[in-house]
Batch of 4 targets.
Target 1
Amino acid sequence: MGIEPEELLPKSVNDFWMRNGRYALVEKEAAVLRYQHFEQMRQSRLEALRRERDVVMKEYESKSMVSPTKKTPRHIDSLDTDDASTLLKLEQRRLERIKQRQQKEIQAVIEMETKMAKIQQENSRRAAEDARRKLEYQKELRDRRDKLMTQKHEKEMKKKKQEDLEAAERKMRAKKEAEKEKLLQEEEQRKQARRQKEAMLCELERAAKAEEFRRQTEALLKQQEDQVAANRARMLEKERFVAQKMEQANKKRHMEAIEKRERANQRIQHALLQNQLALQKRKHDFDEKQAAAAERAKEIHKKTIAELKDRAQKQKKEEEIRQKRLAAARQHYQQNVSKIMTKRQQLEAKLAQVYEEKEKERVLHSLDKQLTTEEKLRNVERMKRVEEYHRMQMIQKISEEDVRSRTVKLKKQSLMEQRQKVALESMLRKHRITEAMEKLRANNKWDKIEETLYAL
């Protein structure tokens, strides 16, 4: 049967482990696949050997049951012409069966190679389609990411531009308000100065009026004093005039005049005192009003300063809030960019994993195909050994049957040569098929596979 003894010995997975080989990426799976393929073929060979053994045993038993008078192969030289013709016919039929079997095997090889070529072509097309889809998906992903980044950047720039515009508007409003406040403050200062000037003028007017009143009062007092002095002179004149006549009466009148003068002086002093008190009161009221006006101006100034400080503090807080929002927006933007980059890395890792799995699948498929091809080559070698074995048996039989006629030997030799020629042609045709398949693989012209193979 052309089976070597070492092909029947059991092996383990470690026996098929090839380190630093062309399948290093999937060497573990490749070793298991080699082991499974070897074990499957070993079991098939064992089963074939069992069947062949059963056939041999049945033939042996059937020969044992033949009549003792029947001739054995060692006495084949005593066969008659009919027996020789029968053997030649059997040999011819066997040769035809061999030719038919070889033709079927070649046809099966062609069909298998055609099927494998179609599968490889389909796998190549699918791989190219997957690569194209992967490139398109990556391009779409990059375009989508770039578009998203551009939109995000434009949105951030628009938002920043809007915030800057709002900040500029707020700054402009604050500037206008400050200018307005400054104008109001300057107007208030002018009003205050005008009020102070008016108050000063009023005070001067009041002082002038008071001075005028004082002068009038002094003039009135002087007039009264002059009048008193005149009256006193007249009284003295009258006293001197009547002194001689009425000394006592004059004394009495003199005393009365003195009392009257004293009372008049007291009234004048009282009037001067009242006028002085009124003047002091007016001055005090004026001073209080001036102090109150100054206090009010001071309070207004403090209030204005406080309002300006409040506005400045408010603007500072608004600016801090704007900066915080801007920083938050930038942080959010960075987070979005980080999320996009993380998703991109995850997607690329997933794509790499898918590609690695497909690459493993492709490598294992290539290994399986290689193992199948090697098995076919081993089958061819086995068939050669079987044919060689049959040839040797036939030569042995021919040497044992040298008593046959020369015609039978020549026919037998012709049949053997034909069988050898058929085997050689089958081997050469298989070799040509293998070379044609290699050329088709190199040229990748699978559409001409049937035409090429059937032309062989």
Note: Residues 66-81 have pLDDT under 50 and may be disordered.
Target 2
Amino acid sequence: MCGVPGITLFYRNFLETLHTNLGIPVWTICVAGHELPFPSSQEGLPDNPKLYNNVKAQVDHKMAFIKSYVPRNRKIFLIGHSFGAKMVTELLKDEQVSEQMQKCVLLMPTLERFKDTPRAQFWLLMLKVGFIYPLILCIRSVNTPSPCSCCQSCRCPGVDHSPICTSALVA
């Protein structure tokens, strides 16, 4: 389970290493609303603001994934980083998850009074003003489009960066 921001790409090398060395399936689940589904996916982002700013809804999102995609007879290892550790501890309250769990690892856990921390206040504010979705679009676009024509370095498609590009400011 990812921490905040809940972007799975951050964990890619770690997860690939686990998969290679242990030879077991590895799944990662983003924090709901922090990542777009793959373009090939039939899934979309649910239009439900409560899903994105409520711990219980985030836990329910992870629970739905486990119950939908992880075979019930399969033992699972739950690893949670930061806020993801809080979600793991909440998932363990469910009887099915508890029975399936073989091991649980909490990496730098955020367990109590999370919403009172300065970092949590920042991310909760960003969630409320809708910052995460545009950020995801920008991060995602960095890997795919060609550079803009004004300076050959900007990577956000469909956006005129000429007023902010260094070459445009010098000219």
Note: Strands lie at 76-81, 101-107.
Target 3
Amino acid sequence: LRDLLCDPEPSLCIITSQTLLLVQMASAEPKPKQRVNWLQKLMGRSSA
């Protein structure tokens, strides 16, 4: 993902930086269930 941060396409840089932020937030979350929810949101899946 870090290579995409230097991509000449601005939208790829934005999406990549948001993805990295979500991954960092998910890994910092102490509760495994919340971590899974963040990863599901990251992958476009909503928990019902």
Note: The mean pLDDT is 75.
Target 4
Amino acid sequence: MAVTKPSKPGKRPKNPEGRMSLKEHLAELRYRVVVSTVALVLATVGGWFLVHPVLENLIIQPLAEASAHGQKVTLTYRAIADAFNIQVKVAVYIGIVISSPVWLYQFWAFITPGLTKKERRTSLWFVAFAVPLFLSGVWLAILVLPKAVAFGAEFALEGSLNQPDAQTVITFASRLMIALGVAFLMPLVLIGLNMMGLVSGRNMGKYWRIAVFCAFLFAAIVSPSPDASQMILMALPLVGLYVVSVFVALFNDRRRARKRRNDPVFGLSDDESSPLASDDEPIDRP
């Protein structure tokens, strides 16, 4: 007589189809949120020690260079607690960047519980590419930001006192970094849609002009200065990533078509019958 081993307390038995009830989905979501939050808090604590170098290189030094060219630029705080609040805000944004490998993986792990073992292995490539792409977008914003700060400060009238609000400057800088980091993840979204069969590589290549226009439009909106060179610097990587995603999608389409030719059952849904089966064949009875 076979004896069934009792499951461990608090551990959900594996479902081969990857299906979960609403309660299990909520428990899974809570677990992913808790892990991401803990990682963010720990990264924010570490980011606190990087606040001064970050502010010095990205904000203070460019303003000092603008002052050296004859502009009187002074960073101001509107309230007594603004200096502390700004440091906390910068530490949180640093924590978001540092903990990005953790929360990106947790996000992907939550939305893919119903995938097969092979698909889950493939999904790990999402995190492997998402992290460097997100950090590349942040790095591009870091390259553009100092020149943009100095560029904006030089527009003050001669003899006037330029006193930018520290809260406004920090908020603008952090939003620019997050926006470019997220924008660099768009190729992964397109490739994911292609792998799910929602968009083909041929259609992606067909609308390349619209993609290029959207890339330059996005760069023009988030560009911190009207300098055309900075807009081009921000748009070209986005265009390049789109081109790469088109080639990856075309390769995946060819691979899927080749597999469909070799295996007629490939790509059929659960309610479709195989073309190898014939309704005219007699049914064997015992």
Note: The radius of gyration is 26 Å.
